[in-house]
Amino acid sequence: MEFKKLDGKLTVSGQISASDLDELAAKGVKHLICNRPDGEGSDQPNFSEIARRAEELGMTTHYLPVVSGSVTDENAEDFAKVLNSAEGPIHAFCRSGMRCTTLWSLANGKTMPLTEIVKTAKEAGYDMTGIAARIGGSENLGEGSSLAKYDVVIVGGGAGGIATASSLLARQHNLNIAIIDPADIHYYQPGWTFVGGGIFRPEVTARTMASLIPNGVDWIKAAVAAFDPSRNAVILEGCRLVRYDRLVVAPGIKLNWDAIEGLSETLGRNGVTSNYRYDLAPYTWELVQNLKGGKALFTQPPMPIKCAGAPQKAMYLSCDYWYKQGVLNNIDVEFYNTGAVLFGVEAYVPALMEYVKKYNAQLNFGHQLTKIDGAAKRAWFATKDADGNDTTIEREFDMIHVVPHQTAPDFIRSSPLADAAGWVDVDQNTLRHKSFDNIWSLGDVMNAPNAKTMAAARKQAPVVANNLLADMGKAKGIAHYDGYGSCPLTVERGKIVLAEFGYGGKLLPSFPSWIINGQKPTRLAWLLKERFLPPLYWKGMLRGHEWMAKPVIGED
């Protein structure tokens, strides 16, 4: 980790982990400031995890979260209070260090010349010219705050964003495209279930973002603060503008760990784990291997969530290991689902129930995890009693796999692009925004009633690419997305129930039933998930090869 110096007292950096704290302590750091809200990234440890180790090393910790791109005067005042009152070196971190540097700039705006602020920040690798007017100066600062204009701007460098860029270039190679994403690492998140089951090593699910951005596409490594569709502009943190002719919105989904009381304080220890975070999936496998008896709980929060089958897949793979080790009879397995059914498409439920019976797992519907005490090994669930009254039940556990609540990112929910529930408001067939004709959206962030899966984004990207180009007059016909999603339900090591469906639960199998019968557990579906889908993702979908994903084109 590179720690960048802003003044004699303060250093800043991007996201740190507990393992970085020894180096900070060796540098004499006495105060640690976190300016990044928990749950922004799938590989992000919660601040409470870092704070525990920092306090062991004698540091005072300060949690001052700032929504990306939305640094307020109050945020700057809180930051300044710590700077002014703290004795000894201070280190602040966020996702990239940009928010910390912005706070430092605003905190020093009345006492330090603007040119010095901008120069110091630039030497540390942060561009503060975009907030010059706010800091309060009119000096000649060189380059302005508006970046280049693009034919297409794509917000989000995840599966949907990169696939759309590649599909656009495969059809029209001379487009001027930018992808905006602050992350350094790109993850193949469907692989984390296999990491938690001891099948994949975690590192095979991660690659550098730089290695995946398509040739000819500009990567703007920054966070989005807001949208200004009236001016065809995206506003980045630091108040810089990126202008577009057409916009694609695909930033993914936010994991809200704090929606469950006590969860953030105990994740990754005390038997509390989740396959929904890169660094925690290996802990799931560790717990599974070490559990020889006791109680194992698996939970599912309110919908929508990405990969709605993942909560129960964690249960099946765990049970399969315990079954084959001969210890399953010593373990009470319970599944607590906020929803009312095991799986939303009824055709696949009978096959899944066979495994529920095999593993003697108790299903509890209408139970929402609301609180957890890891040290005491207790979990609390909101439900209703026999008379329909709200009540809370308490359960002990030796291991618990938790799935966090999930929402659209903050900068989406507060934008003019969002519907009343906070999701990007699109036509479910064309994926075009309902109010802004030059905006499209795909992936987990938009409000079409499809399953939020990687397989859905694989089908959506070519639809968006075709329809965007049709709007430019460079393609004929409008493509329609049929709601396709796929959930390979891993019921045991070596067999999968391959659920494929579209809008309204319509079955949309990719193969004839004599090859893969999706309503039965099959070895071939397992091989598809283990051997074929990862290279299809890295070498196909992200490179614009639309294997088994060609859009159906209709009339204009």
Write a structural description.
There is one protein chain. The protein has 556 residues and is α/β, with parallel strands linked by helices. The protein is built from 15 helices and 26 strands. The longest helix is centred in the C-terminal third of the chain and has 18 residues, at 454-471.
Structure summary:
It contains 15 helices and 26 strands. With 556 residues, it is of the alpha/beta class.
Major sheet size, sense and barrel closure? 7 strands, mixed
**Reported CATH architecture of the largest domain:** 3-Layer(bba) Sandwich
CATH topology of the largest domain: FAD/NAD(P)-binding domain
The CATH class of the largest domain: Alpha Beta
What fraction of residues sit in β-strands? 15-25%
Quickly count the domains.
Answer: 3
Unreliable spans? 137-144
Number of helices: 15
Features:
556 residues, alpha/beta, Protein-Tyrosine Phosphatase, Chain A, FAD/NAD(P)-binding domain, 3 domains, seven-stranded mixed beta sheet, five-stranded mixed beta sheet, 15 helices, globular
Give the topology, please.
Blueprint: E1 4-5, E2 10-13, H1 21-26, E3 31-34, H2 47-56, E4 60-63, H3 73-85, E5 90-93, H4 98-107, H5 114-123, H6 132-135, E6 146-155, H7 159-171, E7 177-180, E8 185-187, H8 192-196, E9 206-208, E10 218-220, E11 224-228, E12 233-236, E13 241-249, E14 254-256, H9 263-266, E15 272-273, H10 281-290, E16 294-300, H11 310-325, E17 331-337, H12 349-358, E18 362-365, E19 368-373, E20 378-384, E21 390-396, E22 399-401, E23 405-407, H13 410-413, E24 439-441, H14 454-471, E25 485-492, E26 495-501, H15 523-540
Parallel strand pairs: 2-5, 3-4, 3-5, 6-7, 6-13, 7-10, 13-24, 15-22, 16-17, 16-22, 17-18
Antiparallel strand pairs: 1-2, 8-9, 11-12, 12-13, 14-23, 19-20, 20-21, 25-26
